[in-house]
Amino acid sequence: MTGRLLIGAPASGNGKTTITLALMALLTSQGKRVQGFKVGPDYIDPSFHHLVTGRPSYNLDIWMGGEADVRRTFLRHSRDADISIIEGVMGLLDGVSSDANWGSSAHVAEVLDCPVLLVLDVHAMARSAAAVVKGFQVLAGNATIAGVILNRVGSARHGAMVRWAIEQETGVPVLGFLQHDESVLLPERHLGLVTAEETREDSRRKLDVAGRLLGEHLDLDRLWRVAMADEHPELVDVSVPRVSRSGKRPHVAIAFDRAFNFYYPANLDLLTAMGAELLWFRPTLGERIPAGATHLYLGGGFPEEYVEDLVQHSGMMRDMRDRIVLDGLPTLAECGGYMFLGEAIWVHGQRFPMAGAIPMETEMTPSLQELGYRELTVLSDGVFPSGSQFRGHAYHHSKIRRASGLVSAYAVSSARATMAPEGHSSPTLVAGYSHLYFPSAPDAVRAWLEREMD
């Protein structure tokens, strides 16, 4: 049997990511096989899980994939690990609505019968921490608050005071604490943390230190007892039919570097399960689409941070435009990839020419433009069959500055808009700001892989 824990908190900013990564680093340093997961649609936190554990970290998102997908994903990737650590999202009870836990981290813990460790930022707090824990005991539903870890503790004496109050009033054990230390904070930008791909060595060093600091004040034996408390639910797996392309194996070129690295691991797994070979290339280094590619996938990331690198490789961008527009390479682009395929990206009032496969220019904005889940319906036959329906997520700080002749790719429903048009499509290209979750529409993904170049 393998252990598992879900790391939750009262709200974002309490230290879920810090404690999750510190615990992963501590256990990995002891030779444990640690499998990471992330509740919700985030890309950046899982990239740090991967950096620490050496294993891809998978999203567990009930809204995008459903309970069965969450259970299947967790069990498929946790079964050869010593322990699985699930990082929650937002506050423990924050889900799709405010009147129930549906879609929240607590809901995921309930689906997986997973003990919850509650992270509390106790800066300037003592006995009041017990009231917070007691409130979560009442509202957590069938999720079990099995332990507490304290963050931003001022001193060992402060930690002891908070521990005594929580354990006396709630019966929930305080398993340890992390004292406040600026040296282990990871850099951030407008979409959250700077990615692990951009800060690999510095982040690795900081997380090793965080793991040692947590280990100084953590009852590791008790934590293992909590993690091993219950059996996993029974594994229910579903085979994925492979694609049929006249006997040819699809070869999907995937941009992956500092500028483009937002991909759901479940998406990549589905492509390989369907028989595709993945071919990686790095646009910021001028690498072109591999010659044998039959399909192209340009994910999100931060191309606006690396426009000066990208514009140095006009030949690479020209080749990409020609492969898509002239050769008809079946292409999917999301968010940063969508921006990159436009004619230009504007950053701080300066225009940087891009690939030019889409008739638009985008510009970075100081304020967030979109955030939240999306339901997407494909509007016309092309890369995906017309009427295909995906679930996904959008989160970006850019907008279209100028466009001429865009043909909308999707009709998008969200909490704030119903059936609004998004993106651009042609017979061999579909692109937009939304990140698609492939397991929500596997038949459409299979149809894409079965497409031949025009």
Beta-strand segment tally: 26
Question: Mean pLDDT across all residues, rounded?
Answer: 92
What is the CATH-assigned architecture of the largest domain? Answer: 3-Layer(aba) Sandwich
- Helix content class: 25-40%
Shape: elongated
Class of secondary structure makeup: alpha/beta
* Major sheet characteristics: 7 strands, parallel
How many domains, in number, for the residues? 2
Which stretches are low in confidence, meaning pLDDT under 50 for 5 or more residues running?
Answer: none
Number of helices: 13
Question: How does this model look, in words?
Answer:
The protein has 454 residues and is of the alpha/beta class. Helices cover 30% and strands 26% of the residues. It has a 7-stranded parallel β-sheet, with helices on both faces. Strands 12-10-13-15-25-24 form a 6-stranded mixed β-sheet. Strand 22 and strand 23 (420-422) form a beta hairpin.
